[in-house]
Amino acid sequence: MSANAKQTARSREQAESTEAGRTQLVRVEGGSGGMERNRYSDGWRAGKPAEDPEKVKRWGLITARPSEFLVHMRRGLVREVSGQGASCFKLPGDSVAIVPTSIQRLQFTADQVTSEKVGVQVTGLAVYRIADPLVAFRMLNFSFPERAQEKLAELLREMFVGAARRLVANLSIEECLSRRKEGIAAELMREIGPVLAGRGRLEDSVDAGWGVLLDTIEIQDVRVLSSTVFENMQARFRREQERQAREAELAKERFVHREETEAERQLNLQRLEAEDEVRQRKQTADEQSQLETLSVAARVAEAKLAQERTLKQEQVTVEREVALTKLAAEQEVRQKKQVSDEQAKLETLNAEARLAEAKIVSERALATSRAQVDMEKLAREQETEVARARIALETLKREQDADVGRAKLELEKQKLAQEAEAAQAKFELVRLQREQEAEHARAQMELERLRREEEQENARAQMELERLRREQEQTAARHEGQLAEQLQEVEKLKAQLQVVQSRRSIAEAEVAIAELEVRRENARQGLELSRARALRDIENTISPEVIQMTLAQQLPLVAAAFQQKMGEVHVTAVDGANPFGYIAAAVEGVMGLARSAGLKVPASSLAPTAQ
Fold first, then answer.
1. Are 598 and 239 in contact (CB under 8 A)?
2. pTM of the complete model
3. Is the dihedral of CA 277, 283, 284, 286 positive or negative?
């Protein structure tokens, strides 16, 4: 064990032996926030708080806690060992003061009459601390720290009570209740704070403060002492609340009426707009259907006219073709008749030539043999020429072979007759031969000319027939194309007619749907109006007395809820606030609500009557 520990134990035993013979400690309830202090029961310090023997011993080692400031004075001067949480060795002639620097709380209550002569009770909490221990230890005797703290708390409490009473006397009841912070707490801080916060030093001849710093002041409660005045105040507010409630109800009724009127107006406008729209749609659909019907009828008429025009053109074409065919047939008949006439002429000439030849042959028969030989030779040449003429005639006649054959038979018969008369014609053979040659040449020329003309006529007829055939084919193709186009146009018109009918059906369906929508909207708005009227009737049927009775019936349930056992509650107070203040405020709010409903509720027993 060290020397310091032995000395501390000896000093403790000495102090206990010194105090044991003359002083007894008792535990009494202190006045600072419900805390209990040990106090002396007798002796010259009877009733004062018990001190820590380690701090008040006459000599020995003294040590301060970390939240305490130790001041060691020797020969009237503060030693350098003084400081926060310091320790020193006290000699019998030294003075040691231990100043607590921790936060201290102080609760005060002040009763005062306001400027309206209404008694109120103000309860507040102050939080302070010793900021400059070297100044504070000179204001109070911190040789006994517990007593010094108690004296400082009592002094501050009296200062707070006096200042609060002076402030409340100049305020109205409304300002006391509503302006706690700025009306009371801030003024207390502004008034007492500069007094406590000192700026003096040891070398100063005069110090300006106490070395105490006031952190905050909170007004916890402002209570009206007179229950009658409090009820009258609540009655005024209740009347104001009732007036506001009735005004709100009237405003609600006006709003509901206005909304109903607006809804009816909107409903009427929507119904009129829907009817107008339905009427316009129906009119537009009818006009569209009529226009499309007229258009289809016009197109059908145009198709009929085009078809009739086509039929007429075809009829004219057929008639023209018939006329052309008739002209071709007449021309062919005329050509055949001309050919037959020419053939008849040729046959006549041939017959005459054969008669002449027969005469010549008969004459030659009477002539000499030489003449007969010559005659036969001429006959052969004549037969050769006749054969050539026959071949030419056969090529020219083509379709008249039968007639030509009959003509040949007749020519043969005439030739036989001519041969019978050839003897007589021998004398005129030379002359006739010459004439025959000339006539034959003329006949050949005439036949050639006729053949050429016939070929030209045939060519012209073929060209005309080909042209007519081509025109007929072109006309037929054009008629077929026009007929196909007309058929397509008719099909298109039929499809458009079906589309028009479908559109008309769709328009009628849309009109029906719009009418159904309008009816549904009317029904929905009617239901809403009925529901609004029913709600308004329900609200109008519930009187304030029924509301008060319902509230009065439910208040016991709220009270029963407050009577339940809540168990252990841990509350942390901030800035010195009342930890159970919110419970009291809730109970007071429920009681005030019950009073506003007209129930007779006794006033709180905690509020004393006004003086």
1. no
2. 0.36
3. positive
